[in-house]
Design brief:
- The structure is a single chain.
- With 571 residues, this protein is an alpha/beta fold.
- It contains 17 helices and 14 strands.
- Helix 12 crosses helix 13.
């Protein structure tokens, strides 16, 4: 392989570079700089001619039992929640504990699973020109970790087109249906994960009420790995009545996962219970040596808290002390109801009432519950949009990897009319991210001083939440602003469809840029507008201190001492 010369006339090229920066090369110095540049070019060419290197920590073991995959038939995929079906296990769990032995898991289809097509929810030509979907040769770090823990990957799950939608209607394969009510969103962009988990929730709910099984929903899973840039784990969990955690930024490595911006990229667990969510976090958390999102605060693997064991131990201790009860399970817990989270423009009054009632339950359980005002939360979506929008176009431009990240090949085909027409019809949010990102990258239009000011307000937002969380152990907000939303109508204009796809993120996206962990649990049923006697789940978001996920799990488990959120009457 030969490096393409920057310019045949290297001297002229260096002169032009110098001139563009406001200085000129002295004639006596030119030969020295030309020689230095040629030496640097020779170093690059030397490395280009070396064999490709794949880090062995990300390469599947040679004794793996095979990685066959299939695209399920429509009859086998009634919710359209599966992207590809697999049956992948590790021959011998490598972590020695086998924490996930016997458990099935779905992997969001923006994560690399070696040997299985990666779709990112979009059409193949968006990822590799006119070729089929790319097939990764390496596993994402967290994929390796769940296999090492004994899980069986039964498939990759459908996600939204480029993962840029918080509904479930933009995937190239069609909408993902909510298992509780077909025709309604399962949330996005981890759409398939939530639907697959909710299949088990629906079946259990019906079994407990001696109702016929819902066999028409197809095969579900025990656990799922999702990704969240603005609510993409938490909103699907809320709409489908399951559990989803956006961890502290940098707790779970994002290596090998298609991202939007390092400031907001999170990967995390989704499950059918609080404990399973904690268990899966125990398996996937911790420094991996590749992901630059992981700061010195991130724990090394051997120092990762065993979140499920901590939860078990705390419940056991409180049980012995006779405080794990309907009147004292939340004793010592200080709960702040975030006032501004109830002021978002599209919050359904019934949802607001359900969440306030759910928050007040902590007081019944012996906790302290108070209102708290964080004015910055009201404009936090602007902070998110500005901070992420400045660089989000890089998703489509194949940017150079950062110095510390592992250089996975990324999907960045040329933009053309076909690209534009297809995405405008399916997900105009993706085109908006590209156009607006390039617009904001113009240094004359948006100089470094603007970028610095935007990032200073990210720190302001983090500090505001930190200040509130010095007074309270957790903060409470609504998650999904309405109980259920029909899939988008055909023929919506660009603005209307883009607003439809992301208008439900106003209480979730702030915590992506602040980095605080946020757990969504189901807390009740809400009436579905336009559907007589129909109800869908409502989720409550519990936000905690950075690196304080164990408190979120304890708060959620304490809340459920008085009954789980979907135990109530559903018509």
């Amino acid at each position: 392989m030969t490096l393409q010369r920057i310019d045949p006339a290297l001297v002229d090229a260096l002169r032009a570079i110098a001139k563009s920066r406001g200085f000129s090369l002295n004639a006596r110095d030119e030969s020295g700089y030309v020689a230095l540049t040629r030496n640097a070019q020779a170093s690059v060419e030397f490395l280009l001619n070396l064999p490709d290197y794949n880090d062995p920590r990300l390469v599947p073991p040679v004794d793996n039992q095979g990685r066959a995959y299939s695209r399920p038939k429509a009859s086998e995929n009634p919710l359209n929640a599966w992207s590809h079906k697999t049956n992948i296990t590790a021959s011998v769990p490598a972590d020695g504990l086998g924490l996930l032995m016997g458990r099935t898991i779905a992997i969001k289809d923006n994560m690399r699973v070696a040997g299985v097509p990666l779709t990112d929810g979009t059409q193949p030509f968006h990822l590799s020109e006119d070729k089929p979907y790319p097939i990764p040769q390496l596993d994402a770090t967290i994929v390796s970790r769940v296999l090492d823990a004994g899980a069986t990957i039964t498939g990759t799950s459908t996600c939204e087109n480029y993962c840029m939608s918080a509904m479930s209607c933009t995937s190239a394969t069609g909408p993902v249906q909510n298992p509780w009510l077909s025709g309604y969103t399962s949330g996005g962009s981890s759409s398939g994960n939530a639907a697959l988990l909710a299949i088990h929730a629906v079946q259990k709910w019906r079994e407990e009420r001696n109702l016929p099984p819902a066999n028409h929903l197809g095969e579900g899973v025990d656990l799922a790995l999702g990704a969240d840039q603005g609510g993409s784990i938490r909103l699907p969990a809320a709409y489908c009545g399951v559990y989803g955690l956006k961890p502290t930024l940098g707790l779970v490595p994002y290596t090998g996962i298609e991202g939007l911006h390092p400031l907001c990229d999170h990967a995390g667990p989704m499950a059918s219970s609080v404990r399973d969510t904690a268990l899966l976090l125990s398996v996937v958390a911790g420094y991996d040596g590749f992901d630059p999102r992981m700061t010195p605060e991130a724990p090394l693997r051997e120092r990762v808290p065993q979140y499920h064991a901590l939860l078990d131990d705390e419940i056991a201790a409180r049980t012995v002390a006779e405080t794990w009860s309907p009147t004292s399970a939340a004793k010592g817990l200080r709960v702040g109801i975030l006032q501004e989270s109830f002021d978002i423009p599209n919050l359904d009054p019934e949802v607001a009432s359900i969440i306030r009632t759910a928050a007040s339950r902590f007081a019944e359980l012996g906790g302290i519950v108070e209102e708290v005002s964080i004015p910055q939360h009201a404009y936090a979506p602007h902070t998110f949009s500005a901070a992420v929008g400045l660089h989000a176009a890089d998703t489509f431009l194949n940017p150079a990897p950062s110095a510390l990240s592992y250089p996975f090949s990324t999907a960045a085909p040329s933009q053309n009319q076909h690209w534009y027409d297809n995405l405008t019809a399916s997900n105009p949010q993706a085109v908006h991210i590209f156009l607006t990102g390039l617009y904001l990258q113009d240094r004359q239009r948006c100089p470094e001083s603007v970028r610095a000011k935007v990032l200073s307000h990210v720190h302001e937002l983090r500090a505001a939440y930190d200040e509130a969380l010095a007074r309270f152990d957790v903060l409470i907000t609504p998650a999904n602003p309405t109980p259920g939303v029909k899939h988008a109508e055909q023929g919506l204009g660009v603005r209307d469809k883009a607003d439809f796809l992301l208008s439900n993120t106003l209480n979730t996206c702030p915590f992506n840029v602040s980095g605080h962990p946020a757990l969504v649990i189901p807390v009740g049923w809400g009436a579905v507008k336009g559907e007589e006697d129909a109800q869908l789940p409502v989720g409550m978001q519990i936000v905690g201190r950075r690196w304080g996920e164990e408190t979120l799990f304890l708060a959620a488990a304490a809340w459920e001492v008085l009954g789980k959120g979907l135990d109530g009457v559903r018509t």
